[in-house]
Amino acid sequence: MTVPADRDRPSADADEAVIELRDVTFQYRAQSEPTLHGIDLTVRRGEKIAVVGASGSGKSTLLSLLNGLVPHRFGGTLTGSVRVAGAEPAAVPLVRTARHVGTVLQDPSGQFVGLTVAEDIAFSLENQEVPSAQMPERVRAAATAAGIADRLGAAPQDLSGGQKQRVSIAGVLVDEVDVLLFDEPLAMLDPATGREAVELIDALHRERGITIVIVEHRLEDVLHRDVDRIVLMADGRIVADAPPDEIVASGMLERHGIRPPLHVAALACAGAPVTAAQRPANAERIELTETQIAAIRTWVASAGDLGGAPRTAPAGSLEIEGLGCVLGGGDGRGVRALEGVSTRIGRGEMVGILGSNGAGKSTLARVICGFEAATAGVVRLDGIDIAPWPIAERGEHVGFVLQEPGQMISASHIAEEIALGLRARGLDDAEIARRTESVLDVCGLRPFRTWPVSALSHGQKKRLTIAAVLALEPRVLILDEPTAGQDFAHYTEFMDFLAAVNAGGTTVLLITHDMHLALEYTERVLVMAQGRLLADAHPADVLTDADITARADLVTTGLYALARRCGIADPSALVRRFVAADRAARTRPDAPVTSAATGAAPEDTPAADGGAR
Amino acid sequence: MSPAPVLGYVDRPGWLHTVTGTAKLVLVVGAVVGAMIGFDLRYLLALCALSVVAWGVSRVRLRDLAAVLWIILSFMVLNNLLIFAFAPGYGTELFGTRHVLLDGPGRWDVTAEQLYYQLLVTLKYGAVLPSVLLFIATTRPPEFASSLHRIGVPYRVAYAVSLALRYIPDVQREFRTISQAQQARGLDTSSRASIPVRVRNLVSVLLPLLLGSLERIETVSTAMELRGFGRGRGRTWYDLRPLRGRDAAVMLLGVALVIVPAVLLVVDGGRYWNVFAG
Q1: Taking Cα atoms as reference points, which of B54, B67, B42 lies closest to residue B119?
Q2: pLDDT score at B199
Q3: B96 and B194 together in one domain
Q4: Domain that holds residue B253
Q5: By CB distance 3.0 to 4.6 Å, which of A465, B186, B240, B259 could disulfide with B146?
């Protein structure tokens, strides 16, 4: 597509291409087909671009091509020409490229190699044999730029995910790089921290003139700050490379499994789609026409009463009263992870638990499951106080699915994995077979029933862990970040599956910091902050409440801004209208989901790659 | 939030904390090597006395390392029982005399020689282990690697030590999570289950832990390579304090700890100071 000739920000050497790919095709050694086909991409010095695409679109491979990990670490056949910062990454040592191109990997904790923040930032200097005496000054400068200078002495386990990411950024800034590559920088962060990360990246771009490439599928969050171009990838090709306004207005995002910004989707639903000239990338900046504002108002008003009625909670299956939990020893040094949490979850409800990292969401689930001891309050299941129950007994009634499926799977075959828990409970073979068959169907795993676990994709593994827990026939199912790191298509497929499980009568609690998920799939959310329950309401009400979102480190979505811009007094009405329209669209059989079932390519699902080798 | 480590740095600055890691490492190596060479009672007693003094000036409390001390104590007792069970006559063999103190069943007579031998073995524990524990408790982890490197250990090996320390808390936490999740599925690893069941269930915990750790290693090594680890022949260290007078004194002491037993080897005419001779 088009590459903008004129750029907003003038720069002395604006025309110098710092990254240049010409007709690049790459095939991993273990793969039968190329992962990238005929890629042409130019990034000029000082540009900031976002690379988006569904899982398996090749965006991570593209990133590895730029920092030299492909082909130095991940071998394969490379054709075409790649030039980064004046050299060919494939031809020079990895470290030579790394001097100019800093990479911030997805998992901020995995790449933390030092025992303290300062030591980690200094890592590259140490490897270059910079004298010890010169290090503190450079470390401090890099830490200041990344906004982590106040935690130089901290150990990695005492840092939050966002802070670890800042350390990673400082660790590459210490080399005074020209280019920064970010591999899904938002995947592990809660919304507010994610916005801070986007703001930090933007500051580095503006103040230091660093060229930025962000690979991410949470496009709306990336667009919180301007980018020069969006590169849209699908099936190993670049299908669009244009300014964000053009891409957002083009409708191509949806077609390629990327969620467009919500305000754009809402305008489309209201029958008043945007054009590129309206600068639609950012909800605060979009130039709405009178017709569009009118269309939105009519659309919202046409909704009638949408879930506005006071909610009557069904008969309580899970009751929590004054629950408190102190972690890390009772000698007064412990952390109050939960305090005075009371709520009632009715049988068959699907409830979201929202809040930032460290707000106490996971601790709440862990206390319910008996992983942590409650220091105050009671948990009742159908009226029975479960305090005396050991973990195993609670597990029969409350199933907990961890975020990382790798942490739960220990058998090598699907059926074995499902049977593991059943056998441990001493069920007979006939019953085990019956339950296995039943969950295989529910979880859509029947086609893979004879497969080894290692051949499953990430999403399929996640389903398997749910199947193994569902086989125990719990009354309540708790999932920790069920959709973390999944692209829009996989996310939709997976959440529809969970909605079906819920429709089958299982109470579902979703721990998440994804507000879209809460909006689209739940009627009720519990908002937590600093170990306390801050709100218990409809998600549309929570996410349009500036006070609650601020206190819970959530962020209001683009819908909120759109409502304000259209002069709608009650923003939650717009949100409800949108969710209703969105759900209606989803339940249609021709819903524009998928490319999801195709199975992900290796760079996004290491396990599948391992299986292929 | 992280659980207190069983064995780790104790942040309560004392005199030993001010000595550089390198110097303390030399002292510990000296004590370990010295205790390995020397079976002389007087030397071992002196070494034990030194350990006691070191604990005193370190401001590390017994309570800080209680768990490890209990483990060591249990091993010490077990070791003594086993030595007596399998080699009740070893003392006699060593010293060539036999003073029976208690007439036991079969060959298990309690002799003065055997008790003396076992006392020496026990003293070795007392002489060596506290100093190793103290080194760990009074040296900030980042200093480990640089200290190892400075006394001649290749930096890749030294860094591996540092990296292991870095990931111990993560692996501990992961183990706990996995184990709880498996327990919730009914895979009991606590003492309520029978031993074979526990072993089998423990495998179900360790397997995901192992696979997760391998994945983690992959990520870390990628990250380290991207940041230039292993390219150069040498490496500098962020956490490296210059050596001062007290460090030199401590290191000299460490060297002396090796020389003394070497001299005693000659004086005693063997590894043991034979109190039964003459």
Answers
A1: B42
A2: 87
A3: no
A4: 15-140+242-268
A5: B240
What CATH number is given to the structural domain containing A138? 3.40.50.300
Query: Does A298 lie in the same domain as A379?
Result: no
Distance from CA of A372 to the nearest CA of B (A): 10
Name residues whose C-beta falls within 8 Å of residue A263's C-beta, 6 or more positions apart in sequence: A280, A283, A286, A558, A559, A561, A562
Closest alpha carbon within chain B to A68: B226
Let me know if residue A309 belongs to a domain.
no
**Residue B109 has what DSSP assignment?**
-
Residue A404 touches partner B, C-beta closer than 8 Å: yes
Report the number of distinct structural domains present in chain A: 3
Which residue, of A518, A538, A561, is where some domain finishes?
A: A561
Q: Are residues A220 and A273 in the same domain?
A: no
pTM for this structure?
Answer: 0.83
Q: Write out pLDDT tens, residues A558-612.
A: 888 899 999 998 888 999 899 888 888 877 644 443 333 333 333 333 333 333 3
With respect to residue A528, please indicate whether it lies within any of the assigned structural domains: yes
Residue A543 sits in the same domain as residue A583: no
Claim to verify: residue A333 and residue A289 sit in the same structural domain: no
The region of weakest confidence among A103-107, A224-228, A560-564, B230-234 is: B230-234
What confidence tier does A411 reach under pLDDT thresholds 50, 70, 90?
confident
Is residue A101 within 8 A of residue A181, CB to CB? The reply is yes
Three-state DSSP class for residue B125? helix
Quick check: A396 contacting B, CB < 8 Å? yes
Q: Are B116 and B275 in contact (CB under 8 A)?
A: yes
User: What is the C-alpha separation between A534 and A160, in angstroms, rounded?
Assistant: 21
What confidence category does residue A55 fall into, taking pLDDT thresholds of 50, 70 and 90? confident
Domain count, chain B: 2
> Would you say residue A12 lies in a domain?
no
pLDDT band at A304 (very low <50, low <70, confident <90, very high): low
Under 8 Å between Cβ of A521 and A86? no
Both A352 and A482 in a single domain? yes
Buried b (16+ CB within 10 A) or exposed e, A539-550: bbbbbbbeebbe
> Which candidate, B107, B138, B213, places its Cα nearest to that of B147?
B138
Mutate to test the interface with B, among A72, A103, A126 (most CBs of B within 10 A): A126
Residue B256: the pLDDT is: 93
A415-434 pLDDT, tens digit each? 999 999 998 888 999 999 99
Interacting residues of A12 by C-beta distance below 8 A, sequence separation 6+ = none
Task: Indicate if the pLDDT at residue A48 is higher than 90.
Answer: yes
Q: Looking at the structure, do residues A294 and A221 belong to the same domain, yes or no?
A: no
**Interchain contact A94–B (C-beta under 8 A):** yes
Domain match, B45 and B102 both = yes
Å from B106 to nearest chain A CA? Answer: 48
Contact B147, B242 (CB under 8 A): no
Chunked mean pLDDT (size 10), chain B, 278 residues: 59 85 91 88 90 86 85 91 91 88 88 91 86 87 86 89 83 89 85 82 89 88 88 85 88 92 86 77
Tell which residue, A62, A381, A93, A391, has the closest CA to residue A236: A62
Across the interface, of A115, A122, A421, the residue whose CB is closest to B162 is A115
| pLDDT tens per residue across span A108-155 | 887 889 889 999 999 999 999 999 899 999 999 999 999 999 999 898
Is A183 inside any structural domain?
A: yes
Sheet of A211-215, strands arranged across? A101-104, A179-183, A211-215, A48-53, A229-234, A237-242
Tell if the CB–CB gap between B187 and A408 is shorter than 8 Å. Answer: no
| Structure ipTM | 0.81
Contact A469, A398 (CB under 8 A): no
| Inter-chain touch B180–A410, beta carbons under 8 Å | no
Range of the domain at A209: 17-260
Of the candidates A113, A135, A404, the beta carbon closest to that of B163 is on A113
